[in-house]
Every structure is written in structure tokens, then in C-alpha cells.
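[Automated response] Your request has been received and processed.

Submitted sequence:
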Amino acid sequence: MKKKIAILGSTGSIGKTLINILKKDKKKIEISLLTSNTNYKDLLNQVKLFNVKNIIITDYKAYLNVKNILRNKKINIFNNFNNIEYIFNKKKIDYTMSAIAGFNGLKPTLDIIKFSKTIAIANKESIICGWTLIEKNLKKYNTNFIPVDSEHFSIWSLIKKKNKEKIEKIYITASGGPFREYPLNKFKNITIMQALNHPNWSMGKKISIDSATMMNKVFEIIEAKKIFSLHYKQLGILIHPKSYAHAVIKFSNGLIKILAHETDMKIPIFNSLYTKYEKNIKSKKIDFKVLNDLNFQKINLKKFPVIKLIKSLPKKDSLFETVLVSANDCLVENFLQKKIKFLDISKILFRILKKKEFQKYKLKKPTNIDQIKSINEYVRLKINDLCV
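Generated structure:
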């Protein structure tokens, strides 16, 4: 029997990596759904390659182009996610990859859980802002969840169903980005090109800037806390320049576990798909040179002040996390548009998060998507006013 799969965001970097993995197993795979926003050319190639019968393309102009190109094909083409119920017809597929970037990925993720035996999520905003809603649906529809981010997949692999009380400390690692050894007195003149130049990973502009400020690690700590039902005091960050080890866990029985793999997202993606070791993947030999010099370091908080935000985060899931994500997203956009400087990202972020109108959200738990959308829009308006 063929393994039935859906990929939300199939033309992004995560989606394309998964597609490349699936190419080698085409005869045993049936892709039930592919989705994209504007990249209809890559989507059409994927549809042809896997003979896909259901596609969603959310940009209206791209949708019309696809409708015209495929007018004589027996393919269901939709412009939004309102037809998920129709596509799956109450039947569960084996595996869904949720890789739509940004807040737009939350609703499709929530909707498709119902029709997935296992869902792998690579969307930070969904987990950080909507984990309460996601977890509710996972339990309601008895759906397995696997985090795809390399750090969280590593933690998941190491602890599985172990008692969370036995976890003494979990460290996620950070390369330090392009400014780990950059002189602090030169930070005020950092350019966009410098900030985008990550030493280890090839990523999109938004995540590259988050890596440069280390905000991505703040987000990863929040994700780990939510996914694994931990306390912030159980979580920490270590600088590890080579990005070879992704998680270090100290258990209360004295054991320390480290998970390492090469800097290639195909490894966590592959292992989220083939959880029973039914397939092998080609990978590089163990790099003993790196293992002999893991070079773990503490973070320089003067260079990366956003890490201090972790201490001010609420203990329980709240809407304040949405404020944080929205504010940072908007500030990164303003930096990329040359409206603010690199150091302004953290300065304005601290200023906006201290405001009483946003502090109140620390006491409010997410109950629906509309709340999250409304706060996201409001915070963006506030940020854009400050950046004019």
C-alpha cells in the first residue's frame, strides 16, 4: 500500500527538500495534496512528477495561471484551504508536512491535523503562537506530532516518551551566525548583506536575520518549552560554531546525551518521514575533527541582547508570544527595507514589549486564530509607526 502524503508549502526550502527525498521512493508514495503561494512553476513540476490530483495555490494571479495551464487535466485546483474537508473526504493520510512560512501557516496546520496520522511541523509561528490550539487538535484527532527544526527534532529523538521530570537540562545549540566574532564596536554599521551571510546554513532572508540577532534561538527555546512541556529553567543555549551537535540533554540519572548530524535539513526531514528506520539516507562520514572540538561557548549578551527576553517570558502559554513574534517579524522587514539599522531591531523590540498595552497579554491564553491574527495586525501597525 502506498504511503499517502500532503505537503503544505511544497515550493519552499523545506518542501523542496522533502520532494527530493520522495523522488527516490516514487513508486511507494502517493502525494494527496501540494500547496504553494506564488511559485506555480515549481508547483507544476512537482504535480507532473508525482501525478498529484489536488493542489492549492493561494495567490490569485498564480491560481488563474495554473487553472489555464491545467484546464484540460483532471486535477482539483483550489485558491484557498477551505476545501481540505472535500480533498480528504474524511480519510486520514499517513503523513503531512506543514512548511508554510509565517502566520499564514497556522490555520492550514490546524485544519489538516484532523486528516493526518502524523504531522511534521516546520512553521515556528504556528508552534509559538498557536501551540495551545495545535495540541488540542492533536489530542482530539489522535494525530502524532513530529517537530522538524533540527534542534527540536534532536530533542524529540533523544527523549521520546521519557518522563519530563527526569530531564535536568536541555541545551540547544547556536552557530553564533555571522557576528559571533565580529567586533561589538562595529555592530552599529552592520549592513543587510553582512547580516544575511550565515556561515553554516543556506536560509531565507527572514530566518537569516533572526539568526544574526539570535532571535531564532529565543523562538526555539519557546518552541521547546511548549512542545516538550518543560520549564524555561530546564532550557539553555550554547554557542557551537560548527552546527554539528544540535541538542545536549542532561538527565537526572547522570546521563548526558548529544545528538549530532551534518548541517543539512534533509536529515531531520527524512527521519520525520521514516520513523521506523525503514529507509536509509546517504550522508557524510562522521566528522571526528569536529567531534574532538565541539567548542561549546556561552552567549555574549552584549552582542545578542535579545536572549535576555527569555527571562521575561510568561510561564504559561499566552498571547504575549504572538506580540513578540509579530514585533520581531515587522522589525526584520523594516531592516531589510533599510528603514531601520541592525541594532534598532533589538532596541525597538525591547521598547515595544515593555508597553502596558502588550504586557497584559502575558495573562491571556490563546483560544482561537482570530485573536492571534488581530494581535499580529495591531502590533505591526504600532511597529511601522515607530519605523517611519
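Summary generated for your ticket: Residues 47 and 336 are 33 Å apart (CA to CA). DSSP finds 16 helices and eleven strands in the chain.
If you did not submit this request, please reply to this message.
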